[in-house]
Automatic annotation (TrEMBL), chain A:
The keyword DNA-binding does not apply. Pathway: Amino-acid degradation; L-phenylalanine degradation; acetoacetate and fumarate from L-phenylalanine: step 5/6. Keywords: Phenylalanine catabolism, Tyrosine catabolism. Residues 4-158 form the GST N-terminal domain. Its cofactor is glutathione. Belongs to the GST superfamily. Zeta family. It holds the Pfam family GST_C_3. This is maleylacetoacetate isomerase. Residues 65-185 form the GST C-terminal domain. The lineage of its organism: Eukaryota, Metazoa, Chordata, Craniata, Vertebrata.
UniProtKB/TrEMBL annotation, chain B:
Pathway: Amino-acid degradation; L-phenylalanine degradation; acetoacetate and fumarate from L-phenylalanine: step 5/6. This is Maleylacetoacetate isomerase. Residues 5-88 form the GST N-terminal domain. It is found in: Cytoplasm. One of its GO terms (biological process) is L-tyrosine catabolic process. Gene3D superfamilies: 1.20.1050.10, Glutaredoxin. Its EC number is 2.5.1.18, 5.2.1.2. Belongs to the GST superfamily. Zeta family.
Length: 189, 217
């Protein structure tokens, strides 16, 4: 049956969950959170965001123009396939504690190097032009991960600038890991 | 470059991501040129300045089409779907589209990146096979369960979709890393059905311009 609020299974700190929370906030979709303590990585939130876009189309998260849509998806995939999975919890748990930080930094730097170059061609106010898109939903959580792993963001001025603009928006604030039902007290905003 | 020329696909014969796009181009009967990029030779041709200028992500596949150059196989496939819509690679129904994308993402984010060349090169030679098998088994365990709910003849119902384009190359990777596929009957069955289709054959790694003679079909 179709009645009832959507239920989001979310971990406060998961960048994947955060992407979906931003989408729900931008589209003013009221939902319930069921906190899950993260064991298994969900690589499939972009599918969820595309479903939200197709069924609740305003405001848009993908531009109308196919070439611009492609750029949005390219950037989203660069982050969601090319960076995030390589530094997620289940991968880091495979390596010795002493190697994790170096590995995470390597992966993020490699990805951000590519992303910075791409964004220099695509960005306006946000990742692609001047409208918030799915790419921006992927960027902010990944920058938060980068900060968590002490990646020096100096080489990535476009990434930093866009991230700052996005964090000023309400949807990115209400969905922030520091404001979730399952945020531990010591990390709460 | 002019817009009237054929699309150009930057591809490595053995790259599963390149194979996904090759299948899409074949299914949609889009004629294209291949520019092979050898990921191993010369320290990896994807790192050349020339290629990096074309695709800053330094990865294959990249497709030059309609005056733009795009990377990321699923973004490419979705662009092809939107601009050359027949035959369909995504169903019309939004819930089924979501299933197709979920399965595609499970493979394209959840499995393939964790066992691709650049990651394996980070670890000692002696650990690579175990790591690749672990990653693939973990992903295929999840995928097998999902497919039991979604599959008909193919991954989602009875029409070939983007999910199937991701499945076949990933099974080929599994075989390459000697993963025992016995626990995954749905995956095996769908893979077999798909490999019988022409688009999956002409795009196969064993039949590419850059396939080495000893691996050629």
């Amino acid at each position: 049956m179709q009645a009832g609020k959507p239920i989001l299974y979310s971990y406060f700190r998961s960048s994947c969950s955060w992407r979906v929370r931003i989408a729900l906030a931008l589209k003013s979709i009221d939902y319930e959170t069921v906190p899950v303590n993260l064991v298994k990585d969900g690589g499939q939130q972009l599918a969820i965001i595309e479903y939200l876009e197709e069924t609740r189309p305003t405001p848009r998260l993908l531009p109308l123009d196919p070439k611009k849509r492609c750029l949005v998806r390219m950037i989203s995939d660069l982050i969601a396939s090319g960076i995030q999975p390589l530094q997620n919890l289940s991968v880091l748990q495979q390596m010795g504690q002493e190697n994790r930080l170096t590995w995470a930094q390597k992966v993020i730097n490699s990805g951000f190097n590519a992303l910075e170059q791409v964004l220099q061609n695509t960005a306006g106010k946000y990742c692609v032009g001047d409208e918030v898109s799915m790419a921006d939903l992927c960027l902010v959580p990944q920058v938060a991960n980068a900060e968590r792993y002490k990646v020096d963001l100096t080489p990535y001025p476009t990434i930093r600038h866009i991230n700052k603009s996005l964090l000023a928006l309400e949807a990115f604030q209400v969905s922030h890991p520091c404001r979730q039902p399952d945020t531990p007290p010591e990390l709460r905003a």
